[in-house]
Every structure is written in structure tokens, then in C-alpha cells.
Amino acid sequence: MSEFKTVRGMRDLLPEEARIMKHIEAKARRAGELYGFKEIITPIVESYELLSAKAGDEVRSRMFVFKDMGDRMIALRPEFTASVARLVATALRTEPKPFRLFSVGSIYRYDEPQKGRYREFWQSNFELIGSNRPEADAEIILLTDSFMKSVGLKPAMKIGHVGVLRGIFNQEKLEDKTQNAIMQLMDKQLYDDAMERLENAEISNEGLEIIRRLVELKGSNVFDVVAKMMTTVAGYEKAVGATENLNEILKLISLSGTNIDMTVNAGFARGLEYYTGMIFEVYVPDMNMALGGGGRYDRLIELFGGDPTPAVGVAHGLDRIMLGMQEKKAMEGIGQERTVMVVPVQEELRPEALKIAQQLRNQDIRVEVEVMGRKMGKALEDADRRKIDCVVIVGERELREGAVVLKKLEKREQATVKIEGLAEAIVA
Ligand code: HAM
Question: Which CATH number applies to 15-327: 1.25.40.10, 3.50.50.60, 3.30.930.10, 3.40.462.10?
Fold first, then answer.
């Protein structure tokens, strides 16, 4: 027995899981198409400098970083957004806005492995570039809702706005470093630690009290919560503007006619540092982890040397979606296509078996050829065990008549069928 195992935090996806993963990926791609997104493929490896610029301490400290043979500091991507922002700042700089970019692929973070948390995982990522308007934010949330529903899940959105807390912090002249540290603590829901940090910073009593109240403000009666936020932040101009923006986005979503399960959470923060506006995460019932998250980041592209360009996006964790589907038994509809097995009765008929298999494949039918040299009984037993739909038995007597025996395993039917009509008989 070999001692080799996968590296800690890395998993193999065996055929059944790989099939579901590819199904989820296809649904993500379809959601992208329905909302006008075009797919791009970017490298898994990027410069450390690019990836770390605004990732936030949490993600930054968990990156797979190494030197390549040319002594360059590089890293495996911990997300797609930095790569997309790089592209927008460079090759796509002169493209007319808006544009909508979709990516799907593996992502690497040195997270502590546990259920739903891996060091290599998959994301589908959507970025809507060039619009600062609330309808763009609404589109990203609507897309996430459509995608989740298309894989049979019941999404619930947790929504907030970075501009509310930041608006107060900025007016209170809190340093960026302190702001980021507090937001990181809030992202981890360590609100007591965040408040303690804030108490030790230079902030007015009024400011402190407002933050304390905001952190408590949440609920699914979203317009009620937003109205309370508005009175709470009165006097903090930027925070008021941010609350109005959030109200606008929520209004557009509810007037869109789609029924979306939303909760507003005024003290909600996300680990990534580039967010400037609305932020959100998507959850499903009984699963205590985000299946996706995103938000608005209007300054990242200029930070990478591009023109000032507003943008909003989201990434979905495909591994967690797969877990959600397994838990919710939302797997129906991932039908397996019909598979046929072709078995020659004698060794001499192997060329005929291959020929018939090729004919069927040319007619778009999935075919496995018997390659183990087994006797008919054993081959049939195996086909039964693996839930093969039909077996084509290639025998000398039938071949003389230009025919084969077609056995439909599930229906327990058997008939001699002319080879030219075989594909039709299989599908019938
Ligand atoms: P994120 O919240 O860091 O956002 O990741 C998005 C999703 O990836 C999470 O909600 C989760 O489902 C999944 N995920 C994260 N870490 C792991 C892990 N260790 N194992 C399994 N799944 C995981 C971003 O990545 C942003 N780039 C989203 C974005 C795009 N914002 C704007 N545009």
C-alpha cells in the first residue's frame, strides 16, 4: 500500500462529486449568460504584490506564497477580484463600460481545514465594471439569487454597507489602519473586541455610542432597519449618504418583482479591504457558513493604476454549494445520460465491437467497450452493477445478418436489432 495522500486541505473529487461540481459550474455559467456576463480565464499564479494589495490581513496571511526560479514573489490566487481589477486597469482599460466578467476556477487559502473549509476550493466569480449606480448592485444580488435557486437551494441574503461604518470612522478621523483592524474584528463577529479597540482609539463619545447602536441594528424588515439606521447616523454626512444608497438598492430589489429573502445588518463587515459600498453574503437554511459573498469596490482599479472605475461583484463557493445540495437533497435534475456497453461474444469479434461502438458515438451515444476480455455473464453482471442502460452483444450468428443483440437492462428486454437501426432502438 502506498503511503501517498493528498496534501492537507486538498481533496480529490471522485467521479460522482466531480459530476456535481461540473453541474454547479454549468449553472453558474448559465446564470452569467442570462445576466450578460462574458467568461474570462486568468492565471492561477499572480504577483504577491497584486494579490496582497487590498486583500485584508485575514486573506493576506493565508496566501500560498513562494519565490519562482526567477526570484519573483508570487502567490496562488486567494480570489479572482484582484486579477480582474488588474485586467481592467491594463488590457481592458479602453473598453467601453460597462462590462461584465465571469470566471470559475480553483482558489487557494491556507485556512484551517474543516467541513466546508478547504485550502483548495472553487469559486464562480462575477464582476460588473463601470457603473456606480444602485441597479448594478441590485443586479449582482439578483444574479446570486437566480444562481442559488437554479441549483435547488433557498438563498437568504445578509446585506450591509461599508460606507456607513467607514463614514463615521472617517468623520471621526480614525486612521485607516485602525479602521481596517476594527472591520476585521467585526467580520469575525468579535464585536466586543472591536468595541474595545474602538474605545482605545481617538473617537468621540457620540461616535462610539452610534457604532454601539449600529452593531445591534439588524432584521428582516429591511426598510424599518434602514429607517432606524438613518436616524442613528444623522449628522455623519457620508454615513447618511451610504444609508440612502443602501435604501435605494433594497428598493430596486424589492420592486424587481423577485421574492428575495433579505436581512439588513448595520454592523456587518467583510474581511476583504477593498469594499467601499454595499456588501452582502448568501446563506441557506441550516448551514452555518456563507455560500457566497461580495460587494462594491469603487477604488481598487485606480489603486492598480487604472482610471477611477466603480465596480461591484460577487464570488460563490462551489464546494459549499455542493455541500448544501447534498444536505438539502437538491440533487434531482442532475440526470445521468444513457450509457451503452458493447460486448463481443468472442475475441475475434473485438474489431466489430469497436466498429459498432464508434458508429454509436458518431450518433452521440455514450459507449463503453468491454476491455477486460470477460465472459458474457461476468460482463453483464458488471453492467448491471454499474447501472448501464443497454448492452449490445456482438455475436457471429447475428452479425451474418448485419445485426446484434440489444439488451435493455432496466426494462429486462432483449431483441435482435439491425446495426443500421441500432442507435434508434437504443434511444426508443
Ligand atoms: P469571499 O467572501 O472571501 O469573497 O469568498 C467568497 C466565497 O468563497 C465564500 O462565501 C465561501 O463560500 C467561499 N470560500 C471562502 N473560503 C473558503 C474555503 N476555505 N473553503 C471553501 N470555500 C470558501 C471573495 O472572494 C471576493 N473576491 C468576492 C467578490 C467579488 N467581491 C467583489 N467581487
Answer: 3.30.930.10
Q: What is the pLDDT of residue 278?
A: 98
CA distances from 53 to 3, 29, 56, 368 (A): 39, 28, 8, 50
CA of 333 relative to ligand 1 center, distance in Å: 26
Specify whether the CB–CB gap between 243 and 161 falls below 8 A: yes
Q: How confident is the model over 113-128, as pLDDT tens digits?
A: 999 999 999 999 999 9
Nearest CA to ligand 1 atom 8: 317
Q: What's the whole-number average pLDDT of the chain?
A: 95
CA 110 / ligand 1 centre spacing (Å): 13
Å from CA of 292 to ligand 1 middle: 6
Cα(269) to centroid(ligand 1), Å: 14
Q: How many CB atoms lie within 10 A of CB 47?
A: 14
What confidence score (pLDDT) does residue 53 get? Answer: 87
Q: What is the mean pLDDT of residues 48-68?
A: 90
CA distances from 139 to 80, 144, 152, 258, 280 (A): 19, 9, 20, 11, 13
Give the distance (Å) from ligand 1 centre to CA of residue 293. 6
Contacts of 37 (CB under 8 A, 6+ apart): 100, 101, 102, 126
Q: Which residue minimizes the CA distance to atom 31 of ligand 1?
A: 294
pLDDT tens digit sequence for 347-378: 999 999 999 999 999 999 999 999 999 999 99
CA nearest ligand 1 atom 2, residue: 293
CA of 85 to the centre of ligand 1 (A): 16
Q: The CATH number of 339-427 is which of 3.20.20.80, 3.20.80.10, 3.40.50.800, 3.40.50.300?
A: 3.40.50.800
pLDDT digits (tens, 9 = 90+) for 220-254: 999 999 999 999 999 999 999 999 999 999 999 99
Question: Can you tell me the mean pLDDT for 4-33?
Answer: 95
- For ligand 1, atom 10, the nearest C-alpha belongs to 292
pLDDT tens sequence across 285-335: 989 999 999 999 999 999 999 999 999 999 999 999 999 998 766 665 566
Three cell numbers, residue 20:
456535481
Nearest CA to ligand 1 atom 30: 314
Alpha helix (H) residue ranges in 10-131: 15-34, 48-52, 57-60, 81-89
Q: Is the CB of 245 within 6 Å of ligand 1?
A: no
